[in-house]
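Input record (one chain):
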Amino acid sequence: AGVPQLVSDPVIPLEARSALGVDLSAVVEKIDRRLFVFGEPEARHNSATLTFRRPAGAQKAKLVLNAHNTFWFDGLYGRFMEKFGVFHASWNEREAQKSREERWQQQIEQDFPLSVYLQTENGWQLVEHLPTVGPMADRDMVVPIDLRQVSGDEVTVRIQTGFLFWQLDYAA
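The corresponding structure, as predicted from the sequence alone:
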């Protein structure tokens, strides 16, 4: 949200699994271009579930991610725009008349963002939708998380997006 965040001593997940149960621990432990591409066609939702040890008494945490969009997603969007042909300008004008909130809601409904959920006493709760960042460069992102609705000594987050829309390199 444009607010600088300080992070010290990041901790990698105790466990990291894809929606189909593939172990992602080695993929997310460091920034090394070993990427998890959210691309499991058999999965109902393309996601990574990360479990962290919760320090005693911790009420807040910060999820640190290094990720970016895929070239496939970028190309898909380009092909979608091409399909408008001569009607592209009029479609673009209609979209421009929508509010920022309406356009953002459309992106959320189409799974464009990288969505972060927290496992709480009341089930999965949305923490944040991270907007697309493009495919050209990795982005470091920090998501503050309120842990007051989490019981126990572990914190579990789920990162979810559309099929092949994002690549994840690191999580702590």
